[in-house]
Design goal:
10 helices; 2 domains; globular; 42% helix; two-stranded parallel ribbon; Rossmann fold; single chain; alpha/beta; four-stranded parallel β-sheet
Length: 323
């Protein structure tokens, strides 16, 4: 296994050993920082009004390439608890997280529960971890349990509340997972292929039975070559795939090159919609929640590839799934 991709979780674990809670909850609530919106959403659901939650990386921003600003560092320093994804999603924030853990702050990876499950974590040919666990709702349910555990240990007086909140949220996620299974299975089997800008959807593909192809690798730091695009064009033409997808946090340049290449070979491919991969939708919208993000993705993919998902999604809350 590439040691670089193990470094941050192991260093943080080492820094945390022997550390106790130096800060206690106050009447006004404790402060929690979460690196990405999907994690912040879990914390808000589980903590409720007991915590003030701040997300560091906002909507439409690529966490693979994100460099923390001085304000981000201040927000992390001011937090009583910090949650991050792990599996090297926040590669450029790693040094900051290690320093904060070394100072005694509680810094927790929400994927820690699956790090040792070798049959779950996906890796690429170079054995780099795929960090996009949230694309499999069942996998993300494990992250909820980690958040509940950490909050309960930090604020034991509210442990029962956190348990009830987590159970209620897990119930919602269970229903979302059932919807994802039924929607994607409604796509004709020959068209059950998801082509996107980068490999952010492998957990979704494995969980819900759809083949996934990304132009770039699992990190957007990798570059797609001409041969990569030509190979995908040939694949689209030979399989007669009707649609490909752009992502809200990744440039659509390479995806549009696929359309042009397929058209040159006599096969029309359309953009089936914009998916949320490394970031959720706009704050304050349904798509700006984790449930809304996955509902949008599943519904958009299913409808564009010939499935029968309802236009407004499983909760009838989606604003639009049209390109």
């Amino acid at each position: 296994m590439n040691h670089l991709f193990k470094t941050v979780p192991l260093l943080i674990a080492a820094a945390l050993s022997g550390c106790s809670n130096q800060n206690e909850p106050t009447e006004s609530g404790y402060r929690v920082a979460a690196t990405v919106g999907m994690i912040a959403d879990i914390v808000r659901a589980v903590a409720g009004p007991n915590a003030i939650v701040e997300g560091i990386i906002g909507e439409g921003v690529d966490p693979h390439l994100y460099k923390p600003t001085s304000n981000d560092v201040k927000a992390l320093q001011a937090a009583d608890l910090i949650f991050y994804n792990g599996l090297m999603l926040e590669g450029k924030m790693g040094d900051v997280l290690v320093r904060l853990a070394g100072s005694g702050k509680r810094v927790s990876a929400v994927t820690e529960a699956i790090l040792n499950q070798s049959d779950y974590v996906i890796t690429d040919e170079a054995e780099h971890y795929d960090p996009h666990v949230w694309m499999d709702v069942r996998g993300w349910m494990e992250a909820v349990k980690v958040v509940e555990k950490v909050l309960s240990e930090y604020d034991p007086s509210q442990a029962e509340t956190y348990h009830k909140n987590a159970a209620a949220y897990l119930d919602q996620l269970g229903k979302l997972n059932t919807y994802a299974v039924s929607s994607i299975s409604s796509i004709p089997e020959s068209k059950r292929v998801l082509v996107t800008a980068h490999d952010a959807f492998n957990y979704l593909g494995r969980a819900y039975g759809i083949e996934v192809r990304g132009i770039q690798g699992m990190s957007t730091e990798s570059e797609a070559g001409v041969k990569d695009i030509e190979s995908l064009v040939d694949f689209l033409v030979s399989r007669q795939i009707p649609a490909v997808f752009v992502e809200s946090s990744v440039s659509d340049k390479n995806v549009r090159a696929l359309l042009e290449g397929a058209a040159a070979k006599g096969h029309q491919v359309v953009i089936g919609g914009e998916l949320y991969s490394d970031a959720m939708g706009p704050a304050g919208t349904y798509e700006g929640t984790y449930i809304g993000m996955i509902d949008h993705n599943v519904t958009t993919i299913s409808r564009a590839l010939g499935g029968t998902a309802p236009e407004k999604g499983f909760q009838e809350k989606l604003s639009s799934t049209h390109p």
